[in-house]
Amino acid sequence: MDYKKLAELLYPKAKSVDFFFDIYKKRVLSTGAEVTRLAPSPTGYLHIGHASQALACKLTAKKSGGVFFVRLEDTDQKREIEGAGKIALEMLNFFELGPDEGYLGDTETGEYGPYIQSKRLEIYQAFAKHLVSLGRAFPCFCEKRDNKEDILKDREQQIEEGAIETKDPCRDLTLKQIEEKLEQNKSFALRLCSEGDGVKTFKFKDLIKGEREIVANDKDIVLIKGNGTPVYALAHVVDDTLMGTTTVIRGEEWYSSLSGHLELFKAFGFVPPKYAHTPVICKTDAGNKRKLSKRKDPEADMRYFIKSGYPKTAVIEYLLNLANSDFELWRAKNPDADYSEFLFAISKIGSNNPMFDFDKLNNISKEIISKLPAQQIYEDLLTYTKEYDTNFYDIIKNKKDYCLGLFNIDRGGVKPRKDIANLGEIKNLYSYMFKEFYNPNKIDNYDFDPKISKADIKCILLMYRQTIDMNDDKQSWFEKIKALCEPFGFAVDTKSFKQNPQNFKGSVADVSGIIRVAITGRRNTPDLYEIIKLLGKREVTERIGRVLELLKVEEGKFIDKIEIVDIHP
Ligand code: GLU
User: Fold this and answer.
1) Is the Cβ–Cβ distance between 245 and 274 less than 8 Å?
2) Ligand 1 pocket residue status of 507, Cβ below 6 Å
3) What's the 3-state SS for 380-441?
4) Which of the chain's termini has less CB crowding within 10 Å, N or C?
5) What is the 41 CA–ligand 1 centroid distance (Å)?
């Protein structure tokens, strides 16, 4: 077969590969510099797996003095979602994972563009033609040739049944037969002419999976579809060669097609990049481990974390933690360092699929938020609620000092309060601090400790209400609470209660607990003294009055019941 002639027949107008090698010069890089890239397809939004790969790409490039670029893989137009590429970029930028080069949403930057694959069709044609001229690609005129999945499915089944070989029958067409088909205007897909026999294996070292034995590809994979668009394999090999990628960090799902990609690099005579196939983030669902799914799990989409109001560093640190398990130890030793100082390494990524763990994310986030100044939390909350909760925004925007007072409770110092995991939960977490959201209307809405009698709650609140004085310092406020203990049978300190529990109904902690629940509805809140000062005498007195009223109603119900029992024994 005269392959040069065949190449001319199939792609008469295509340029030479040298033409493109002249345009895209080899990168001039210092020794050891890594060129990494993220290649999202605009078929959904930025997946958490892609964000984690972007982080690995960015840190690897930065650490080595290299380049991190983004390329948009949009050749599968059927699966494309309008605007998804741009959103992916916005998400990367939001999390400070934006690239040094490449696709930027509306524009692009760099010497190796276009960075949108649908704009690179003539480049793929040139390389396709070159491969044909080397005798390593051939046209396939079969029906269904465009529908790769169908073909592969059909063929795989047939191969399994022993009916056909993995090699495509069209590879045996003569030049004359091809010429005839082209004259009849039949369109064709271009396939790799594989040299594998399905038996031969070779050793391959993945940066994450380590050294593995791989069966060489033996499939005549499609490279260019009938409509002239390339499939992933060809675009990957051509783009990563021209763009000078040194390390491909991509999802585990591509590992099974690796042997085909490596055969393609070899067929062209190009040196393949290093590969790191990242494990897939999973979760437990009804006792089973499964991949995070964009359809079922909102946390698979990076926008979820923004909508929930997680600080971006919390999400990034969580992803770092998933990728390099020694990050946690490093963070404990370096509580105030920026995460970029951590020595990230691809080689430290475990090959097992990590589990997404909300508790861990929340703990990291709480730690980060606990260190922020109140002013910052207030400003972040304003920005957040303006976008996601305008009702709350309207309430807080004119209450700056009040909010600062609230966020300042138990902040600073060696043991700051770690209760806020994201901005979205502040409203519920502190609903009792906003009259607009605080409306308990039955006694069951209060989380009183059931071991304390309603009679004691009532008496203690009645007494406490009389002592309220906003000029009290914390010490005298607490003395007043202590003074309520003995008359009602509670110990003035927890120590004496623990020594002789049989002598008391509880301790001063229970007495202040009653007051806390009466004012906030909850047993666990930040410093009660500070809360009382912020709410003010009128509000606190009213709230206690409300509990006393509700207790009265409760008593009434109780008496009614007794009466009914008495009348109808
Ligand atoms: N478009 C592929 C993806 O979205 C890119 C894979 C790669 O990084 O090469 O996963």
Assistant:
1) no
2) no
3) HHHHHHHHHCHHHHHHHCCCHHHHHHHHHCCCCCCCCCCCCCCHHHHHHHCHHHCHHHCCCC
4) C
5) 7
Mean per-residue pLDDT for 12-35?
97
Q: Is 427 in the pocket of ligand 1 (CB under 6 A)?
A: no
One DSSP character per residue, 318-364 reads HHHHHHBTTHHHHHHH-TTS-GGGS---GGGB-SSPPBP-HHHHHHH
For residue range 408-464, list pLDDT tens digits in order. 999 988 899 999 999 999 999 999 999 999 999 999 999 999 999 999 999 999 999
Ligand 1 in reach of 250 Cβ (< 6 A): yes
Euclidean distance between the first and final Cα of the chain, in Å?
108
> Residue 547 CA to chain centroid, in angstroms?
44
Token pair for 413:
């110092």
Q: Based on C-alpha coordinates, what's the Rg of the chain? A: 34
Cβ of 261 below 6 Å from ligand 1: no
Q: How many angstroms separate the CA atoms of 338 and 353, rounded? A: 27
Distance CA 243, CA 249 (A): 15
Helix 258-268 / helix 121-133 crossing angle, nearest 10 deg = 70
Any atom of ligand 1 within 6 Å of the Cβ of 41:
yes
pTM reported for the whole predicted model:
0.89
Residue with tokens 């047939």: 158
Q: Say if residues 445 and 431 touch (Cβ distance below 8 Å).
A: no
Strands 101-103 and 108-109: antiparallel
Residue 256, burial from CB neighbour count under 10 angstroms (0-12, 13-18, 19+): exposed
Number of other CB atoms surrounding residue 71 within 10 Å? 28
Name the phi and psi angles at 491, rounded to 5.
-75, 140
Order the strands of the 101-103 sheet from edge to edge: 108-109, 101-103, 67-70, 35-38, 247-251, 274-278
d(CA 354, CA 297): 16
Residues in Cβ contact with 324 at an 8 Å cutoff, skipping those fewer than 6 apart: 342, 344, 345, 348, 349
* Dihedral of alpha carbons 263, 264, 270, 275, sign: negative
Distances in Å between the Cα of 353 and the Cα atoms of 211, 247, 302, 420 are 18, 21, 19, 29
